[in-house]
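Duplicate of #3305? Posting structure anyway:
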């Protein structure tokens, strides 16, 4: 065992250190090293590769990244210890401890978010680096040739193996839970009704280590000159706004789009409760998960909300309880969840996704989607009902066209009445089609009559473009 002792020391220390880090992250909000490493990896990844990764892995991208960085960190503990054991056997533990402390500190600085505290970073460094000499000391006792009571040695060995096993199970459980949560998340659904149920509403999050769970009794919305409790926020005048929320990562024909009834006070009413500096041009927002975003004050309207309810019930945790912003005409990235603070600035301070290559404005592009029939459907000849949604953010929808001959001919669909100025619009067309195979595509016009772009464009950096197309067979 002595020949492999550095490797065993490193792997054991890595497992126990990350087990402690996961535990501290869950209970006292200590930064999570695998999450920080994943953040740095994404920062270094070319934007095109990042976009392809999201497209290929979908909702599993983030839990896979968290699991991957966890495995890599444990492996690095072991391989680094093994290499140091060959190069400097007498200094292996000291050098490994210093290296872990330096790398952890560097990761914490690069991936620092507004929600991270200096104390939390110190605790993280101590946990990850301090575990190395601790494990080494335990292994020295286990390998001592004499002078140690055999019963005590067996007890110590069992406790050590048990601790490593529990840490491994804990880390594994945390990662499996992320997978289960991701698989349980619905990207949204095909629009069969005006309002999307909360259970079917799409959810997107940046948080590899899990979303925050906010206690309403201790939550505060911090403003420059005061703060609001949850009860005080609920006591403010509020009204409802029907609005469709779409993710900037929504692909052509994708389901990262849902429609809901939002309720909460106007942002302008909240800002009236505090002091807005005379030179302020931007509202800066912070969330419980360290998310940041900015919004120009000149663009605020009475329809901008700090929502507390969705579809008649308080926001659920995945949708930002206790409060999230709702900004008509913008993709979801501009509408932070779990809001904790509002500040003001004369200059813009780009938010989390903007710093990762996404568009600062995030204005919703005109989109349309075929919801029925499904792609690949086999249908009987005759009347074929084709229907779906169209959406253009705050610009509304003025027309939808459908083609089933490769785009050579376009036919105007019937628009259903608007649900609201900010909601998706349903459309339908029922042509009579003889037997054959058809490529059905759709396009929409916004309220100004501008046609959505036909040229395909990826979601990065400012949302996808292109006509949704399906293939159906008529027999």
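Output from current build:
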């Amino acid at each position: 065992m002595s020949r492999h002792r550095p490797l065993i020391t490193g792997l054991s220390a890595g497992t126990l250190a990350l087990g402690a880090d996961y535990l501290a992250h869950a209970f006292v909000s200590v930064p999570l090293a695998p999450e920080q490493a994943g953040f740095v990896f994404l920062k270094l990844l070319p934007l095109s590769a990042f976009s392809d990764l999201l497209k290929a892995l979908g909702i599993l991208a983030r839990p896979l990244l968290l699991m991957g960085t966890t495995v890599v960190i444990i492996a690095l503990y072991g391989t680094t210890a093994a290499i140091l054991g060959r190069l400097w056997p007498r200094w292996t533990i000291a050098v490994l401890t210093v290296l872990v402390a330096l790398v952890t500190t560097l990761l914490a600085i690069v991936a620092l978010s507004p929600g991270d505290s200096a104390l939390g970073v110190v605790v993280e460094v101590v946990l990850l680096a301090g575990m190395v000499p601790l494990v080494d000391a335990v292994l020295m006792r286990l390998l001592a040739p004499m002078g140690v009571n055999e019963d005590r040695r067996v007890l110590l060995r069992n406790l050590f193996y048990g601790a490593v096993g529990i840490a491994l199970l804990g880390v594994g459980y945390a990662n499996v839970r992320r997978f289960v949560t991701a698989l349980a998340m619905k990207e949204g659904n095909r629009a069969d009704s005006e309002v999307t149920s909360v259970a079917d509403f799409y959810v997107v999050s940046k948080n590899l280590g899990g979303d925050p769970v906010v206690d309403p009794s201790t939550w505060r919305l911090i403003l420059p000159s005061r703060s609001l409790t949850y009860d005080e926020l609920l006591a403010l005048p509020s009204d409802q706004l029907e609005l469709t929320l779409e993710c900037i990562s929504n692909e052509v024909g994708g389901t990262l789009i849902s429609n809901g009834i939002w309720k909460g006070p106007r942002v302008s009413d909240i800002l009236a409760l505090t002091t807005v500096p005379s030179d302020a041009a931007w509202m800066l927002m912070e969330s419980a998960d360290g998310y940041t975003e900015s919004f120009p004050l000149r663009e605020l309207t009475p329809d901008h909300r700090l929502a507390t309810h969705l579809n008649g019930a308080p926001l659920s945790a995945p949708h930002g309880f206790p409060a999230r912003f709702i900004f008509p005409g913008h993709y979801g990235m501009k509408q932070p969840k779990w809001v904790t603070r509002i500040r003001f600035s004369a200059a813009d301070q780009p938010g989390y996704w903007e710093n990762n290559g996404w568009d600062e404005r995030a204005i919703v592009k005109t989109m349309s989607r075929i919801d029925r029939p499904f792609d690949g459907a086999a249908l009987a000849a005759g009347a074929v009902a084709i229907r779906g949604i169209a959406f253009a953010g705050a610009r509304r929808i003025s027309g939808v066209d459908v083609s089933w001959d490769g785009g050579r001919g376009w036919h105007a669909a019937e628009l259903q009445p608007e649900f609201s100025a900010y909601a998706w619009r349903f459309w339908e067309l029922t042509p009579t089609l003889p037997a054959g195979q058809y490529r059905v595509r759709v396009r929409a016009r916004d309220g100004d009559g501008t046609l959505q772009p036909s040229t395909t464009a990826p979601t990065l950096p400012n949302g996808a473009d292109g006509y949704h197309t399906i293939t159906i067979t008529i027999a």
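Confirmed duplicate; merging threads. The first helix runs from residue 5 to 28. The chain has a mean pLDDT of 89.
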